[in-house]
Structure formats: structure tokens, C-alpha cells
Specification:
Layout lengths: L10 E2 L24 H7 L5 E2 L2 H10 L3 E6 L8 H15 L3 E6 L20 H16 L11 E4 L1 H4 L4 H8 L5 H6 L1 H8 L6 H4 L1 H16 L3 E5 L3 H15 L4 E5 L12 E2 L2 E2 L9 H9 L3 H11 L4 H13 L5 H15 L1 H14 L10 H9 L3 E5 L4 H8 L5 H9 L3 E3 L2 E3 L16 E6 L3 E8 L1
Parallel strand pairs: 3-4, 3-6, 4-5, 6-7, 10-14
Antiparallel strand pairs: 1-14, 2-7, 8-9, 11-12, 11-13, 13-14
Helix pairs in contact: 10-11, 12-15, 12-16, 13-14, 13-15, 15-16, 18-19
Length: 453
């Protein structure tokens, strides 16, 4: 978070205080304070649109219901938008229903229409590689044992054998062009200069066929997805009604946005990925830790398994003691543990605290320390370089002379040890594991230094 007089490029972070007794993570469970799973999903804000909620409520009460969500492999990892759906699937599974995750080996070759421009088609080999990655990611969030174990399917299995004639005769005849043109994603593209190709225009037919095939093959009667997919979800419901003369269900979750209307899950234009190679556990934790007070309670509802009572208590603390940031720290811990595991989550908490002087930097896991320092503004340096010059090179101060004054005033720290000599230089004792040095000006302005030979 930027602070008034700090130099351009300075990096500040919010952090909690060290806790002697670590918080016990919430177990994955449904909340028995609700009369039904539908009531809990509504309270958590996970249902914004639905076909017939009363009929779905009855079906779930009679259960178990077989249900699915589709994940297209248009990148090598899922991101936070997908995490909403994974947690929705998990909550329904915990209520005794049977989940199916569809990894779109076929639809991933085409891609759902973007609002303004045609997608670049990825190669078949690339999509096949991403199918494997997405399958592995999805499997990590849903139990694969017991009577309601996860089933993972690939729509390439039934789409690849489909001939053009079969596509037109068996599927195309059930779709009206006027209705297809009216769907929001298509309408936006028609209004754009790029227009829309038949390839992307046909996507909604393929997704509808997925629901039909899963109904026929597995008895799946519920599809979930984001609200922006509602036209496609309803397309599947309508296709099954026309072909099989039965009613099935769909629910759409709201697109998560910040209270100021900006898109959720974006950091400086980049998605927050659940793959640790794309978004490190430390960066992931910091993203959640910096949640605004106005958003944190809703994030707790959607992304954690905390009960209603626990979330209401955290909401009270946000209202009465916002400076403690208890809700943000709990949110960051819970979601980081969910995605990256408890050990990684505990490590990044310790790293977050140690960077600001509340722990021993040398006791940190070296990989986590490296992730943390990578998130800071920084520079390269060599042993023997003047600390004042290195500090200026990081952008934490505007000049070497300002750095020298800050050091003389006792406001500069190297690895959380105060430096008071303006002539001080980097020495080997300052270098942390991984060849790094942490510089800090004041309490919250940090920078990382890579020390070479």
C-alpha cells in the first residue's frame, strides 16, 4: 500500500503480529446452522441465478444429485475465478452429492467467446498438456474416495467422434439462431469491430451437448458455472428438455468484484493463479492479506469453510477493531492453506512477520524467504558495496545522500538489524540463505537485494 511521502518504487506490506498459538484451520464441512445446502450457498453469495431453485432444493433434499462444472484448458493453470467453482463443487460434495469435473479437451481447442476479440487457437498438443494439468489441479480440491467420489471427464471423448453431419442433424437443429445471437457474449462480439467467427459462435452448442452427454451417460442433472456463463448453462438445460423431455437444473455464481467495482483476482493486470510456479504462496498470501475491509467478509463467505458464527465474529472485529486486521489475516491463512497446504501457509505467515522485524529471517524456509524477497522492489549488489548506494538503487530513497541521512538517523535496517554508520558496506555476515539481503527503512518500507560474487 502506498504511503504519503515514501519514495517511488517503495514497497509496503500489511502484516499481523506474531502469535504464540497458531490459529487452528477450519475443517472442510457444511454448516449445520443452515436448514439445507441451498440455504448455505445462498448465504455465502454463491447463487445469483438459477433455473428453478425450489425444484433444485427438493432434488438435493432427496439426493444424492449428480452435478458438474466445466473447466476449459485455455491456460496451464486455474485462477481465482475457477476457485469459486471448485469450492462450490466441494460444498455440494460435502452435502452428500456426487461431483463431476469436466475438463474441456474439446472446447479448450475453441475457447469461449471473449467480449471484444477472437481467441488465438492453441495447438492440440498444448491443449492436451493443459488438460493434464487442469485435471490434476481439480482433483486436489475434491475427494476421490467413497460413494460420492469425484469423477473427472474430458468432453473430447464424445466430441471428437462427432461428424459435421451429426453435429448439424443431431444438435444444430435444436438451436434457434435468434436466441444464440441474443446471448450476451455473442451480442458483445457482434457489436465489436472484430465480429465473431462461426468457430466461437458454435461454442454454446458444444457446451450444451456436454450437459446432454453427461445426463445420458452418468445421470448428471445439475450444472454450475459463473454468471457470465448463464446463457451456455441454460442452453444445456433447454437441449435436454427438447431431446429427453426432462427437466434438469443450473445455478450460476456471481462474478466476484471488489467493492469499488474493479475486477477481483487481478494484481497489476495479472491473474492470481493457483499454480505456485505462476503465483508463489507468499504472493498469494499477500494478495488476500491486502483485502479491503469492505470486501473481507464476503471473501470469507465464498473462499473459506469458516462457519456463519465464526464469520459473524470476524465481521464484528472488522467493524469495531479494523486496525487489527484479524479478518484479513484469517482469510489469507485459510485460503493459502487450502490452495498450497498448511505447511506453506504457516511458512509464509512466518515470513510475512519476519520481514517486518517480528521473527528470525535466518530461521525461515529458504524457498519461502526467496518468494518473499522476490515480491519486493530490489537491485543487485556485491559484497563491499556501500549500503547507502544500494538503498538508493532499490528506489526506497531518492538519492545516496538521502540514504546516508536515513542511516545516520537510525532509520535503516539490514536483515532487521539497525545500521547507524553512513559509511557501512555489505559484508558476508549480512547475506541470508539464497544470497539475499533485506533492507528496511522505518517500519514498513522494504527492498530485497541479490548479492553476487
Amino acid at each position: 500500500m502506498p504511503r504519503g511521502r515514501e519514495a517511488p518504487g517503495a514497497q509496503t506490506r500489511r502484516t499481523g503480529t506474531v502469535t504464540e498459538n497458531p490459529i487452528e484451520l477450519a475443517p472442510q464441512r457444511i454448516d449445520d446452522s443452515f436448514d439445507s445446502i441451498v440455504d448455505e450457498l445462498q448465504w455465502r453469495g454463491l447463487i445469483s441465478v438459477s433455473t428453478d431453485l425450489d425444484a433444485l432444493r427438493q432434488a438435493l433434499a432427496e439426493g444424492p444429485v449428480r452435478y458438474y462444472c466445466g473447466f476449459d484448458p485455455t491456460a496451464g493453470s486455474l485462477h481465482l475465478g475457477h476457485l469459486v467453482q471448485l469450492l462450490l463443487l466441494r460444498r455440494l460434495q460435502l452435502a452428500g452429492n456426487i461431483p463431476y469435473a469436466l475438463v474441456g479437451g474439446a472446447t479448450g481447442l475453441i475457447g469461449d467467446p471473449r467480449p471484444t476479440a477472437e481467441r488465438t487457437l492453441n495447438s492440440r498438443d498444448q491443449v492436451a498438456e493443459w488438460v493434464v494439468r487442469i485435471r490434476d489441479q481439480v482433483s486436489g480440491y475434491l475427494g476421490d474416495e467413497g460413494e460420492n467420489a469425484l469423477h473427472v471427464v474430458d468432453n473430447l471423448d464424445w466430441t471428437a467422434p462427432l461428424s459435421a453431419i451429426d453435429f448439424l442433424r443431431d444438435l444444430g437443429k435444436h438451436f434457434r439462431v435468434g436466441q444464440m445471437l441474443a446471448k450476451e457474449a455473442v451480442a458483445k462480439r457482434l457489436r465489436s469491430e472484430a465480429g465473431i467467427s462461426y468457430t466461437e459462435f458454435s461454442y454454446q452448442i458444444l457446451q450444451a451437448n456436454d450437459f446432454l452427454q453427461l445426463y445420458r451417460r452418468e445421470g448428471v442433472t445439475l450444472q454450475t458455472g459463473g454468471q457470465d456463463q448463464w446463457g451456455n448453462l441454460v442452453g444445456g438445460v433447454d437441449l435436454i428438455r427438447r431431446v429427453e423431455q426432462v427437466g434438469v437444473h443450473a445455478i450460476g455464481s456471481p462474478l466476484i468484484t471488489n467493492s469499488d467495482g474493479t475486477k477481483f483476482g487481478k494484481s497489476e493486470g495479472n491473474a492470481i493463479w493457483i499454480d505456485p510456479e505462476l503465483t508463489s504462496p507468499y504472493a498469494f498470501y499477500q494478495f488476500w492479506l491486502n483485502t479491503e475491509d469492505a470486501d473481507v467478509v464476503e471473501r470469507l463467505k465464498v473462499f473459506t469453510f469458516l462457519t456463519r458464527a465464526e464469520i459473524e465474529e470476524l465481521a464484528r472485529q472488522v467493524a469495531e477493531e479494523p486496525y487489527r486486521r484479524a479478518a484479513q489475516r484469517r482469510l489469507a491463512l485459510e485460503v493459502t492453506a487450502l490452495v498450497h497446504g498448511e505447511t506453506a501457509a504457516r511458512n509464509v505467515v512466518r515470513a510475512s512477520e519476519a520481514l517486518f522485524g517480528d521473527g528470525d529471517l535466518r530461521a525461515l524456509d529458504p524457498a519461502t524467504l526467496g518468494q518473499a524477497l522476490d515480491e519486493l522492489p530490489g537491485t543487485g549488489a556485491a559484497l563491499g558495496d556501500p549500503i547507502a548506494r544500494v538503498l538508493a538503487d532499490t528506489g526506497v530513497v531518492r538519492s545516496v545522500s538521502e540514504a546516508r541521512r536515513a542511516i545516520g538517523q537510525g532509520g535503516v535496517y539490514v536483515d532487521n538489524v539497525r545500521v547507524t554508520d553512513p559509511e557501512a558496506t555489505l559484508d558476508a555476515d549480512m547475506v541470508l540463505p539464497g544470497g539475499r539481503v533485506l533492507l528496511r527503512r522505518g517500519r514498513r518500507t522494504l527492498a530485497g537485494v541479490r548479492v553476487g560474487d
